[in-house]
Amino acid sequence: MVATQLTLRLMGAPTLLTGDAPVALSPGASLLCAYLALGPKEGRSRDVAAAQLFTDCPTTSARRRLNTALWRLRNEVRERTGVDIVGAVGAQRVSLNSAVDMALDARVFEELVTPAFASKATELTKEQAGSLEAAVRMRHGQLVEACDEEWVLAERARIEDLYLTALDCLLQYYGAHGEPGAVAKYGDMALALEPLREDIHRHLMTAYAAANRDDLVERQFERCRAVLLEELGADPLPETVALYSRLRRGESGPNPSVGALTQELERARREIARLSEIVERALEHVARMS
Amino acid sequence: MVRTWKHRFLLDVWAEPRDVASLPVIVRARVRDLASEEETYVGSFAEIQRIIDARLDAEGLTPRTWERDQ
User: Could you tell me if B10 lies within 8 Å of chain A, comparing CB atoms?
Assistant: First the structure.
């Protein structure tokens, strides 16, 4: 008999799969499966599990509901796959069956991204970039989407950080390889999650400049400025303005010190004053002609 | 009608990475009201307090005081 290969997809709505086919589970069974899969290998305490999953119930009622939920999860998965997914249930702890061959997408995702983070983003190998791309394709939404219970929040934040870092690495990598289309793709994905992260806006501007797309540098700075104004009522940080000024002149790299930053901003101010004088003269010229 | 007794907000706080290490990091945050799914970006504690106060006002929880403000 061939063992059934199960995959538990948690990056998005929790879904159990056999091969590529989803296993139809009730929402409660799916959520309990996710809860146990994200727990420690040795399982979770029954009392803690009951309290975390059934927060609105008194203790005895919560324990009873946990037992029912475990029974339902076991039966639903067994009926549809023949696999006994719930581990040997003790009096104190509860877990998934460690003998079941089940891949967890969040763990696979982590294994794909982590090695690449040891390298500088612009110096990734093609294989490392490929791993990052395979990882970001795995995300179908937030970890255990639509569940905002406390047990999922910390792990969700950790996975989201890894995901955002992977996107940041990819946009820098493709900037260094002169591929503005890929830069835009991964930049948009990152900013869809964190539109106010100025370091990502700066990395995008730098990546577009590396790909010789001054028009996109301009557009990115304007997007950064507009979103900060609209959402926070704030201006971009001085280094974001200074970077934009440098990239417009065809120079690259950040300003490493306060002195260099001040010098850059003074230079931008002089440039704007010079442009302002030219515009004033042009307006006077038009006024004289009309 | 059962009155809502718990009001949940998710608060994401981050420090904007700086290019110049000697400059102070800038703290920004996002408050998500889990009842309405509304997200608001803020740059101070005062703004967070205003969001929570507005929600409690809308629930009719007045007059009120925080435990340690009494």
Answer: yes
pLDDT computed for residue B1 by the predictor: 55
Query: What is d(CA A107, CA A72) in angstroms, rounded to the nearest whole number?
Result: 26
B-chain residue closest to A150, CA distance: B10
ipTM greater than 0.90, yes or no? no
The residue of chain A nearest to residue B32, with distances taken between CA atoms, is A148
Q: What percent of chain A stands above pLDDT 70? A: 98
DSSP state of A234: -
- CATH number of this structure's domain A6-100, picked from the four choices 1.10.10.10, 3.10.129.10, 3.40.50.2300, 3.20.20.70: 1.10.10.10
Contact B42 A232 (CB under 8 A): yes
Contact flag B43-A257 (C-beta cutoff 8 Å): no
pTM for the model: 0.89
Determine the pLDDT at residue A5.
84
Closest Cα partner for A23 from A73, A66, A65? A73
Burial class (CB in 10 A: 0-12, 13-18, 19+), A155: middle
Contacts of A157 in chain B (CB under 8 A): 12
Contact status, residue A37 vs residue A144, Cβ threshold 8 Å: no
CA distance B28 to chain A (A): 9
Does B25 reach chain A within 8 Å, measured CB to CB?
A: no
Q: Per-domain residue ranges for chain A?
A: 6-100, 104-194, 213-290
The answer, yes or no, to whether the previous bond of B63 is cis (omega within 30 of 0) is yes
Q: Where is pLDDT greater, at B35 or A273?
A: A273
With contacts defined as CB-CB under 8 Å, which chain B residues touch A121? none
